[in-house]
Amino acid sequence: MRNSRFVAALFAYVALAWGGSYVAISVGLHNLPPVFFAASRLDIASVILLPAVVYRYDDWRPKLTGDWLTIGAAGLFVAAGANAFLFLGQQSTPGPVAAVIFALNPILASLFAWLLLPSERLSVVSVFGIVLGIVGVAVVAEPSPDMLLSAAGLGPWIVLCGAASLGSGTVLTRRFETTLPTLVTTSWGLLFGGLFLHLVSVGLGEHVSTGWSSTLLLSVLYLGLIATAGAYSAYFELIDRIGAVRTALVSYVVPVVTAIASWVIVGETITVHTVVGFVVIAVGFALTERRTLIAGLRRSRWIETDA
């Protein structure tokens, strides 16, 4: 019972932390350029996580080629790419919409696994689930000729690129043989991703104002400490305890948290399109990962074994 409560607490923490992150991004983007803002999130998280993993793990230092390749994939795709596209897209995308679109990343991970990992196979039902998830994004984005030709209309699709970067990066890290624990590679990846995004920010000519309000500082610290360093640690602890697929279900609680937080804090409301798209994406995920979900539920006695 105590273990179940701890797992529930971890799950709730990740959902609340990541749900609130979209609100913090919306607030911070009023004053910070997007790529620099994303880099700052990774900087703070790596400064917290790297000393922690050095203390916790004996094998914290990358040694093999596979270790460095895994860190490179995590840094370039999972950390830098996912966050840069998310922050860029959220300049013209409401937080609740961005959260729903990012919920597609577990489905995209299945697609990239099929493309990049020879051992992965997709059934007809899984393919239908992937297509359904993409349709859900289209419903949320509400595409029209006028919207697609405007800068605002590109926002949801830029966020989708972030979800695709996260999904592909997650799969790429599985292609390489590494001796490092997942949290260790993620911590190094956050450091590498942050440094890379600072170079991109300079290359884009982003200008950072010297005036930092308490609200802006709070949003940056929240993203780095609560929504990245803390949430990533809790997320990987959940994977160790209940498995990757069941942990991925947190992605479908996050948009609900974001919708409530956005309404309470910044007055953003959700549309019918957003709700319908979210349901379609969730159904797509259930179809894509149906066997693993059912097996996990049976093991945890959430459903009867003879169902």
State the main characteristics.
307 residues; mainly alpha; 14 helices; 77% helix; globular
* Number of H- or I-type helical stretches: 14
Mean of all residue-level pLDDT scores: 85
Low-confidence stretches: 302-307
Output the radius of gyration.
19 Å
Class from secondary-structure proportions = mainly alpha
Q: Kindly report how far apart the N and C termini lie.
A: 24 Å
Q: What's the number of extended β-strand segments?
A: 0
Report strand %: under 5%
What sequence of helices (H) and strands (E) makes up the elements?
A: HHHHHHHHHHHHHH
Largest sheet, in brief, is: none
Range of helix content: over 70%
Shape from CA axes? globular
Summarize the structure.
The chain contains 14 helices and no strands.
What's the helix and strand layout?
Elements lengths: L1 H27 L5 H23 L8 H25 L5 H8 L2 H12 L7 H18 L3 H4 L2 H25 L6 H22 L10 H29 L1 H5 L5 H12 L6 H17 L1 H10 L8
Helix pairs in contact: 1-4, 1-10, 1-12, 2-3, 2-9, 2-10, 3-8, 3-9, 4-8, 4-12, 4-13, 5-6, 5-8, 6-13
Explained architecture:
Mean pLDDT is 85; it is low at 302-307. Helix 2 (34-56) packs antiparallel against helix 9 (182-203) and helix 4 runs parallel beside helix 8 (151-175). This protein has helices at 2-28, 34-56, 65-89, 95-102, 105-116, 124-141, 145-148, 151-175, 182-203, 214-242, 244-248, 254-265, 272-288, 290-299. The protein has 14 helices and no strands. With 307 residues, it is mostly helical.
